[in-house]
Amino acid sequence: METRKLLPPRQEVHHHFEFTGKSGEFFRIWIVNTLLTVVTLGIYSAWAKVRTRRYFYGSTWVAGSSFNYLADPITILKGRLIGMGLLLAFTLANHFFPLVAFLLWPIILVVLPFVINKSLSFNARVSAWRNVRFKFQGTYWKTCLYFILLPVLTLLSLGLAFPWIFKKQKEYLVNHYSFGGESFKAFFVAKAFYMMYIKAIAFFFLFSVVGAIAIFLTGFAVSDAISNGVIWIFASSAYLVLFAAIMAGTANIIYGNTAIEQYRFESRQKASELAFIYLTNILAIIVTLGLAIPWAMIRLAQYRAESTTLLADEALDHFTDQAQEEQSAIAEEVGEVFDLAVGV
Q: Where are the transmembrane segments (predicted)?
């Protein structure tokens, strides 16, 4: 797995992803969702999630077709009510019966892989492209290994094993997704994840050094309030640069090294561009007291879509026709009563 390389498909054609959503259109959806969620004390949030995702999925196009989000708000609401009920029960137990809450942790760790699998399965099969649904088929014990047991190595290795663990988690997820019966394949190399984190941390320290110099120089000329403001700005910007570098690097590694059959993907996100989008989005949201949130979401979705390409044959009709036939044979699991939309 570490040394395999992707082979380019024959008659390769670049199908660029496109996002056609508009800020004005989505603002109307967002403001109604927000108001109804507040009025209904959160009950409408399930419908708000479905409306939002349907808009973003339907506005994302590749090879002449958009994606579809097919979730039922009632299913999402049930999952949220169950999750909120369990959280409330645990909070009350922790407050009034601390020993009982402590004893519940082993049970939570045992149940968590099941919840993760159910959530991923639900989110996959309510997502579709050209009327073909995605599917996630993870196993309980592998989810337990990659998301419960392996993270312990992060502590034992003082963080040095984290990029390798992150790589194994993403590899596990990708390899257990499928589309119309065809499985996705991950061709990840641990070195790429280590280099991504090394570069991100280097950017962080470089930005921090520049900030420290600016703080040192302004410290002699301005008041403490201004100096503290400069410190806060540079500290926040440094973490923003670190976050952008990790997000862009992760997307490029995952999408750039994933294939399904002979088809593969490319991702060209840049940390500097993503950091600029994050920064200006945050400033716009602050200045407008939150009203710019729809504009920020649309802007980020456009950048991510425009940075992604599907490399395949010209039409993809043969592949999707086969996928639709395969889906007809495996659709008996649709509507499973225990699926939960818990948003893992």
A: 27-48, 96-116, 143-166, 194-217, 229-255, 275-298
